[in-house]
Amino acid sequence: MENTARKIVALDQARIVGHIQLEPQDCGQMPVPVAPVAPQASSAFLTEWTRFAADASQLRREHNRISSEILALQAEKRWEDIIELFHPVEEKTPELVAAGMEVDIRSKVAFALVRLHRNNEAIHTLLPAAARQPDNAMIRYTIGYAVLDELFTARSERRLIPGKRKKELISLAHDHFAAARALRPDSVTFCYREAILFKEIEGKYKLAIPLFEQAIVNWEQQSRQEQEQRHQQRPKYVKSLYHLASCLLDAGRPARSLQLLEKLEQEDRDRNYLHPVFRHFAFGKVLHALNRHQEAIDRLETAGHAAGQEQPTDFVWELAARNALHLRQVDKANHYIARVPANRRRPYVRWTEADILAAQGKVHEALRVLQQCGERDKRSRHVSLIRICRLQLGLKQYDQALHAAILAVRFCEETYGDPSKEAQFWQAASLHLLGKNREALEILTILADGHFQYPHFQRLIDLVRTAQTTESNESVTKQNTPGRNLS
After folding, report:
1. pLDDT of residue 269
2. What's the average model confidence in pLDDT over 173-183?
3. Among 116, 214, 326, 350, who pairs with 373 as Cys (CB 3.0-4.6 Å)?
4. Which residues have CB under 8 Å from 335's CB, separation 6+?
């Protein structure tokens, strides 16, 4: 019995020591010499602890009670009650914190904070736990997830996060997602979440692709039994197929994207992890890119009819209209655009609306739509201006077209710090049609040096060079004509 008691005391002490990590604090100052500390000073708390050995059992019972209470509240989704009772952890459970036994409680409280989108508090709650248990994959993952949710919440609430702070948050999320993945490399969810950070928050689809691919591999290499045991990861597998298809479409690989969507449709049959509206819309986008316009329309009509009464469908009908325009079904395209209420037509819907009006021969009405759109649009005004330029070139209003192109170039310079290369192309086209080929060639040469790719770009360069050569030859001929300088 005495030996057993000694073993239990030793085990308790080992657990206590394992929970505490004493690390040097870097305050950004020069190190200050410190007098040597007696070895027993750093472990003084152990001798203090032995006086109250009976408290170990009490603390374990308290930890188990709190943990069970939180689990019961979680089952009823009573997130506010969890926070009211146990947040902040340092104030509500100081004995557990002092004993280094509160990590599990921190994790559960942080989860409740995330559910209420109090993400910054969740992050601050978890960081001490991550420092104490750096090999705890779920804590690392939850910190990354809290950051991701904060970034999405700020976007949906149109709340601005200062640039420096946003970079810090993104870096923090990547650090902890990467640590979680290293600890559990076979996790579907961990790969999926970091890929979403790259794709949806940073717009870096090329960096998201390998992570979505890894999430898919992690699921598909599991046995059926393992998939049943980890069934909660299946929705992330299905969504990884969807997002990877989207990334590959952006990368110019629509055929591979279509293969992934076909697999998604099989895997998501009768489950609807992905809403039918988004699934059919994704098919519509890929089929549009493959110039299979009628098939795209069929998918988009299905998407539109699958939407709930209050669910937005403007993006569905706008794409359907564009496919109909490609098939020269102008009336059908107009019918689709009419499905979007006039007061809810965002700029990209207005651009297609203008294309339809132009296709109907109503060019002046199309110009009015684009001018109104450009006046209200603070983010993509240059798109409306470029379309105005093109329509005015068709009307042979070359001066007005040049003015619109110059405004588009300036808008991008002032708003984004760089000129729109597409706007510069149309600026050069307008200058050429005005007979100002030297100025046009200067712009086109800069674009060519930057490896600009655009339909008929090389053809325009050839036209401008030919025109300038002709003008130079005519100038020389006139100068050499006898009697030209006679008064």
Report:
1. 85
2. 97
3. 350
4. none
pTM, rounded to two decimals: 0.78
Q: Does domain 61-184 have CATH number 3.40.50?
A: no
Whether 485 shows a pLDDT value over 60: the answer reads no
